[in-house]
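Our preliminary data section would be incomplete without showing what the modeling component actually yields. Below, a chain of 332 amino acids is followed by its predicted structure, encoded as C-alpha coordinates that our downstream tools consume directly.
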Amino acid sequence: MTARRKAARVLALGVAPLALAGLAAAPAAAHGSLTDPVSRVSACYAEGPENPRSAACKAAVAAGGTQALYDWNGVNIADAAGKHRDLIPDGKLCSAANDKFRGLDLPRADWPASAMSAGKHTFAFRATAPHKGSFALYLTRPGYDASQPLAWSDLEAKPFASATDPALKDGSYVFDGTVPQRSGRHLVYTIWQRSDSPEAFYACSDVMFGGGSEKGAGVGARTPQPPTAPSEDAIAEGAAKSSVEHDGHGDDDADTGAKATTAVPAGEDRAATGGNAPSVNAAAGEEVLAETGGSGSSTYLAIGGAAALSAGAAALFASQRRRATATGRRGR
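Predicted structure:
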Protein backbone atom coordinates (compact mmCIF):
# COMPACT_ATOMS: atom_id res chain seq x y z
CA MET A 1 0.00 0.00 0.00
CA THR A 2 1.44 3.41 -0.95
CA ALA A 3 2.00 6.16 1.62
CA ARG A 4 -0.72 8.28 0.03
CA ARG A 5 -3.25 5.47 0.26
CA LYS A 6 -2.29 4.75 3.87
CA ALA A 7 -2.84 8.38 4.86
CA ALA A 8 -6.16 8.53 3.02
CA ARG A 9 -7.32 5.34 4.75
CA VAL A 10 -6.35 6.66 8.19
CA LEU A 11 -8.16 9.92 7.52
CA ALA A 12 -11.30 8.13 6.33
CA LEU A 13 -11.34 5.71 9.25
CA GLY A 14 -10.86 8.55 11.73
CA VAL A 15 -13.28 11.10 10.31
CA ALA A 16 -16.18 8.74 9.54
CA PRO A 17 -16.75 7.63 13.15
CA LEU A 18 -16.22 11.21 14.26
CA ALA A 19 -18.91 12.43 11.89
CA LEU A 20 -21.30 9.84 13.31
CA ALA A 21 -20.32 10.88 16.84
CA GLY A 22 -21.02 14.49 15.96
CA LEU A 23 -24.51 13.56 14.81
CA ALA A 24 -25.14 11.58 17.99
CA ALA A 25 -23.82 14.44 20.11
CA ALA A 26 -26.29 16.97 18.73
CA PRO A 27 -28.46 18.07 21.67
CA ALA A 28 -32.03 16.77 21.46
CA ALA A 29 -35.08 18.67 22.57
CA ALA A 30 -38.47 17.49 23.74
CA HIS A 31 -41.38 19.88 23.63
CA GLY A 32 -45.05 19.92 24.48
CA SER A 33 -47.80 20.86 26.90
CA LEU A 34 -50.86 19.34 28.52
CA THR A 35 -53.94 19.65 26.31
CA ASP A 36 -56.46 17.66 28.36
CA PRO A 37 -57.09 19.52 30.56
CA VAL A 38 -55.86 22.44 28.49
CA SER A 39 -52.85 24.29 29.87
CA ARG A 40 -52.86 28.08 30.18
CA VAL A 41 -50.25 28.59 27.50
CA SER A 42 -51.99 26.17 25.11
CA ALA A 43 -55.34 27.86 25.67
CA CYS A 44 -53.95 31.34 25.02
CA TYR A 45 -52.09 30.16 21.93
CA ALA A 46 -55.29 28.59 20.60
CA GLU A 47 -57.09 31.91 21.12
CA GLY A 48 -54.49 33.59 18.91
CA PRO A 49 -51.27 35.25 20.15
CA GLU A 50 -51.96 38.52 18.32
CA ASN A 51 -55.56 38.92 19.42
CA PRO A 52 -56.61 36.62 22.30
CA ARG A 53 -60.25 36.86 23.34
CA SER A 54 -60.14 36.20 27.09
CA ALA A 55 -59.14 38.86 29.60
CA ALA A 56 -56.58 36.56 31.22
CA CYS A 57 -54.82 35.74 27.95
CA LYS A 58 -54.83 39.42 26.97
CA ALA A 59 -53.18 40.18 30.30
CA ALA A 60 -50.60 37.43 29.70
CA VAL A 61 -49.66 38.98 26.36
CA ALA A 62 -49.49 42.43 27.92
CA ALA A 63 -47.11 41.07 30.57
CA GLY A 64 -44.88 38.85 28.45
CA GLY A 65 -45.55 39.51 24.79
CA THR A 66 -46.78 37.24 22.02
CA GLN A 67 -43.59 35.18 21.64
CA ALA A 68 -44.38 33.26 24.82
CA LEU A 69 -47.57 32.00 23.18
CA TYR A 70 -45.88 31.08 19.90
CA ASP A 71 -43.47 29.12 22.11
CA TRP A 72 -46.39 27.37 23.89
CA ASN A 73 -44.57 24.01 23.83
CA GLY A 74 -41.34 25.26 25.40
CA VAL A 75 -42.00 25.96 29.11
CA ASN A 76 -38.95 24.06 30.30
CA ILE A 77 -35.77 23.89 32.34
CA ALA A 78 -32.96 22.32 30.36
CA ASP A 79 -31.04 20.89 33.31
CA ALA A 80 -33.81 20.30 35.85
CA ALA A 81 -32.80 16.69 36.60
CA GLY A 82 -35.71 16.30 39.02
CA LYS A 83 -34.81 19.37 41.13
CA HIS A 84 -38.09 21.15 40.36
CA ARG A 85 -38.81 22.57 43.81
CA ASP A 86 -35.22 23.76 44.22
CA LEU A 87 -35.13 25.54 40.88
CA ILE A 88 -38.60 27.10 40.69
CA PRO A 89 -39.58 29.60 43.39
CA ASP A 90 -43.11 30.15 44.66
CA GLY A 91 -45.13 32.39 42.37
CA LYS A 92 -43.29 31.21 39.23
CA LEU A 93 -44.48 27.65 38.86
CA CYS A 94 -46.43 28.22 35.64
CA SER A 95 -43.50 29.92 33.89
CA ALA A 96 -40.90 27.53 35.35
CA ALA A 97 -39.08 30.72 36.42
CA ASN A 98 -38.51 31.65 32.77
CA ASP A 99 -39.11 35.38 32.41
CA LYS A 100 -40.39 34.98 28.86
CA PHE A 101 -43.43 33.14 30.22
CA ARG A 102 -44.03 35.49 33.17
CA GLY A 103 -47.55 36.24 31.95
CA LEU A 104 -48.57 32.69 32.84
CA ASP A 105 -47.85 33.37 36.52
CA LEU A 106 -50.44 36.15 36.83
CA PRO A 107 -52.66 35.40 39.86
CA ARG A 108 -56.16 35.61 38.38
CA ALA A 109 -59.42 33.82 38.97
CA ASP A 110 -60.58 34.21 35.37
CA TRP A 111 -58.18 31.98 33.47
CA PRO A 112 -60.15 29.84 30.97
CA ALA A 113 -60.80 26.58 32.83
CA SER A 114 -61.58 23.06 31.62
CA ALA A 115 -64.50 21.22 33.20
CA MET A 116 -63.26 18.54 35.60
CA SER A 117 -64.90 15.97 37.85
CA ALA A 118 -63.66 13.48 40.40
CA GLY A 119 -62.93 9.96 39.25
CA LYS A 120 -61.12 8.39 36.34
CA HIS A 121 -59.89 10.76 33.64
CA THR A 122 -57.79 10.28 30.51
CA PHE A 123 -55.09 12.93 30.21
CA ALA A 124 -53.36 14.04 27.01
CA PHE A 125 -50.02 15.77 26.59
CA ARG A 126 -49.35 17.07 23.06
CA ALA A 127 -45.69 16.29 22.34
CA THR A 128 -44.27 18.07 19.32
CA ALA A 129 -40.96 16.30 20.03
CA PRO A 130 -41.56 12.96 21.80
CA HIS A 131 -39.00 11.50 24.19
CA LYS A 132 -38.93 8.95 26.97
CA GLY A 133 -39.80 10.22 30.41
CA SER A 134 -42.22 10.35 33.32
CA PHE A 135 -45.30 12.49 33.92
CA ALA A 136 -46.47 13.63 37.34
CA LEU A 137 -49.71 15.59 37.79
CA TYR A 138 -50.48 17.49 41.00
CA LEU A 139 -53.81 18.99 42.06
CA THR A 140 -54.23 22.06 44.23
CA ARG A 141 -55.40 21.50 47.80
CA PRO A 142 -58.93 22.28 49.04
CA GLY A 143 -59.18 26.02 49.69
CA TYR A 144 -56.95 26.97 46.74
CA ASP A 145 -57.27 30.68 45.91
CA ALA A 146 -56.54 31.46 42.25
CA SER A 147 -56.27 35.17 42.99
CA GLN A 148 -53.02 34.52 44.89
CA PRO A 149 -49.63 33.58 43.36
CA LEU A 150 -49.32 29.81 42.98
CA ALA A 151 -46.96 28.28 45.56
CA TRP A 152 -45.67 24.76 45.97
CA SER A 153 -47.61 24.55 49.22
CA ASP A 154 -50.83 25.02 47.23
CA LEU A 155 -50.27 21.62 45.61
CA GLU A 156 -50.83 18.22 47.13
CA ALA A 157 -47.56 16.64 48.23
CA LYS A 158 -47.98 13.63 45.95
CA PRO A 159 -49.17 13.43 42.35
CA PHE A 160 -52.69 12.12 41.81
CA ALA A 161 -51.73 10.82 38.36
CA SER A 162 -48.41 9.61 37.00
CA ALA A 163 -47.09 7.65 34.04
CA THR A 164 -43.76 6.52 32.66
CA ASP A 165 -43.36 6.27 28.89
CA PRO A 166 -47.11 6.29 28.22
CA ALA A 167 -48.56 5.47 24.82
CA LEU A 168 -48.15 8.07 22.08
CA LYS A 169 -51.36 8.43 20.06
CA ASP A 170 -51.74 10.93 17.23
CA GLY A 171 -48.90 13.05 18.56
CA SER A 172 -50.04 13.06 22.20
CA TYR A 173 -49.04 11.04 25.22
CA VAL A 174 -52.21 9.54 26.69
CA PHE A 175 -52.56 8.09 30.18
CA ASP A 176 -55.21 7.62 32.87
CA GLY A 177 -55.46 8.94 36.41
CA THR A 178 -58.01 9.21 39.21
CA VAL A 179 -58.97 12.78 40.05
CA PRO A 180 -59.68 13.55 43.74
CA GLN A 181 -62.90 15.17 44.90
CA ARG A 182 -62.91 18.97 44.68
CA SER A 183 -65.34 21.84 44.13
CA GLY A 184 -64.94 25.15 42.34
CA ARG A 185 -61.78 26.40 40.60
CA HIS A 186 -58.54 24.45 40.93
CA LEU A 187 -55.32 23.87 39.03
CA VAL A 188 -53.51 20.82 37.68
CA TYR A 189 -49.72 21.18 37.65
CA THR A 190 -47.87 18.91 35.23
CA ILE A 191 -44.19 17.98 35.27
CA TRP A 192 -42.74 15.98 32.39
CA GLN A 193 -39.23 14.87 33.33
CA ARG A 194 -37.31 13.30 30.48
CA SER A 195 -35.33 10.14 31.23
CA ASP A 196 -32.97 10.57 28.26
CA SER A 197 -31.99 14.07 29.37
CA PRO A 198 -32.14 16.29 32.50
CA GLU A 199 -34.65 18.52 30.68
CA ALA A 200 -38.14 18.89 32.15
CA PHE A 201 -41.34 20.57 30.95
CA TYR A 202 -44.08 22.18 33.01
CA ALA A 203 -47.73 23.15 32.53
CA CYS A 204 -50.49 24.82 34.53
CA SER A 205 -54.02 23.76 33.62
CA ASP A 206 -56.95 25.62 35.17
CA VAL A 207 -59.92 23.37 35.90
CA MET A 208 -63.45 23.86 37.23
CA PHE A 209 -65.27 21.32 39.38
CA GLY A 210 -69.02 21.45 39.71
CA GLY A 211 -70.57 22.58 42.99
CA GLY A 212 -69.37 25.11 45.53
CA SER A 213 -68.37 28.72 45.05
CA GLU A 214 -65.26 29.92 43.24
CA LYS A 215 -62.83 31.34 45.78
CA GLY A 216 -61.18 34.57 44.70
CA ALA A 217 -63.55 35.19 41.79
CA GLY A 218 -65.08 38.28 43.36
CA VAL A 219 -68.60 39.60 43.19
CA GLY A 220 -70.00 39.73 39.68
CA ALA A 221 -67.07 37.84 38.15
CA ARG A 222 -67.93 35.88 35.03
CA THR A 223 -66.52 32.49 34.17
CA PRO A 224 -64.76 32.76 30.78
CA GLN A 225 -65.49 30.40 27.91
CA PRO A 226 -63.91 26.96 28.33
CA PRO A 227 -60.48 26.70 26.72
CA THR A 228 -59.67 24.70 23.61
CA ALA A 229 -56.41 22.99 22.71
CA PRO A 230 -54.50 24.20 19.65
CA SER A 231 -55.56 22.46 16.47
CA GLU A 232 -52.96 20.69 14.33
CA ASP A 233 -53.41 23.39 11.68
CA ALA A 234 -52.78 26.09 14.29
CA ILE A 235 -49.68 24.29 15.54
CA ALA A 236 -48.29 24.00 12.02
CA GLU A 237 -49.18 27.59 11.15
CA GLY A 238 -47.51 29.05 14.23
CA ALA A 239 -44.34 26.94 14.01
CA ALA A 240 -42.70 29.46 11.68
CA LYS A 241 -42.99 32.18 14.34
CA SER A 242 -41.80 29.97 17.17
CA SER A 243 -38.29 30.11 18.57
CA VAL A 244 -38.80 26.55 19.85
CA GLU A 245 -38.24 23.68 17.46
CA HIS A 246 -41.17 21.40 16.76
CA ASP A 247 -39.33 18.30 15.54
CA GLY A 248 -36.78 17.44 18.20
CA HIS A 249 -33.55 18.65 16.59
CA GLY A 250 -32.57 20.76 19.58
CA ASP A 251 -33.00 24.23 21.04
CA ASP A 252 -29.40 25.12 20.25
CA ASP A 253 -29.90 24.77 16.51
CA ALA A 254 -28.62 27.99 14.94
CA ASP A 255 -31.63 28.09 12.61
CA THR A 256 -34.02 28.88 15.46
CA GLY A 257 -31.94 31.27 17.53
CA ALA A 258 -33.39 29.65 20.63
CA LYS A 259 -31.45 28.69 23.73
CA ALA A 260 -32.01 26.25 26.51
CA THR A 261 -33.40 27.74 29.70
CA THR A 262 -30.88 28.23 32.47
CA ALA A 263 -31.97 26.61 35.71
CA VAL A 264 -31.50 29.05 38.57
CA PRO A 265 -31.92 27.90 42.18
CA ALA A 266 -34.84 29.48 44.02
CA GLY A 267 -33.87 32.77 45.62
CA GLU A 268 -31.21 33.67 43.04
CA ASP A 269 -31.63 36.42 40.48
CA ARG A 270 -32.25 34.93 37.04
CA ALA A 271 -31.39 38.23 35.37
CA ALA A 272 -27.87 37.99 36.77
CA THR A 273 -27.37 34.70 34.93
CA GLY A 274 -28.56 35.92 31.58
CA GLY A 275 -31.99 34.29 31.75
CA ASN A 276 -31.92 32.13 28.63
CA ALA A 277 -28.21 31.40 28.46
CA PRO A 278 -27.40 27.73 28.07
CA SER A 279 -26.24 26.02 31.20
CA VAL A 280 -24.32 22.83 31.86
CA ASN A 281 -25.07 20.32 34.58
CA ALA A 282 -21.92 18.23 34.85
CA ALA A 283 -23.47 15.17 36.44
CA ALA A 284 -26.55 15.31 34.22
CA GLY A 285 -24.36 15.88 31.19
CA GLU A 286 -22.43 12.72 31.93
CA GLU A 287 -25.67 10.80 32.26
CA VAL A 288 -26.95 12.16 28.94
CA LEU A 289 -23.66 11.27 27.30
CA ALA A 290 -23.97 7.72 28.55
CA GLU A 291 -27.62 7.31 27.50
CA THR A 292 -27.78 9.24 24.24
CA GLY A 293 -24.19 9.44 23.05
CA GLY A 294 -23.89 13.17 23.60
CA SER A 295 -24.24 16.08 25.99
CA GLY A 296 -24.36 19.83 25.74
CA SER A 297 -20.57 19.98 25.42
CA SER A 298 -20.17 16.99 23.09
CA THR A 299 -20.29 19.13 19.97
CA TYR A 300 -17.20 21.03 21.10
CA LEU A 301 -15.46 17.77 21.97
CA ALA A 302 -16.29 16.47 18.52
CA ILE A 303 -14.85 19.57 16.87
CA GLY A 304 -11.69 19.26 18.94
CA GLY A 305 -11.45 15.59 18.08
CA ALA A 306 -11.83 16.35 14.39
CA ALA A 307 -8.98 18.82 14.56
CA ALA A 308 -6.78 16.31 16.38
CA LEU A 309 -7.51 13.54 13.89
CA SER A 310 -6.93 15.84 10.94
CA ALA A 311 -3.62 16.93 12.41
CA GLY A 312 -2.62 13.33 13.06
CA ALA A 313 -3.51 12.27 9.53
CA ALA A 314 -1.53 15.16 8.08
CA ALA A 315 1.51 14.25 10.21
CA LEU A 316 1.29 10.60 9.16
CA PHE A 317 0.98 11.59 5.52
CA ALA A 318 4.09 13.79 5.78
CA SER A 319 6.01 11.05 7.58
CA GLN A 320 5.14 8.43 4.98
CA ARG A 321 6.03 10.83 2.19
CA ARG A 322 9.47 11.52 3.69
CA ARG A 323 10.05 7.79 4.13
CA ALA A 324 9.09 7.10 0.52
CA THR A 325 11.41 9.88 -0.67
CA ALA A 326 14.33 8.51 1.36
CA THR A 327 13.71 5.01 0.04
CA GLY A 328 13.66 6.31 -3.51
CA ARG A 329 16.99 8.06 -3.04
CA ARG A 330 18.65 4.92 -1.63
CA GLY A 331 17.45 2.95 -4.65
CA ARG A 332 19.13 5.23 -7.14
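Residues 10-29, 249-313 have pLDDT under 50 and may be disordered. The CA atoms of residues 124 and 174 lie 5 Å apart. Preliminary results of this kind motivate Aim 1 of the renewal.
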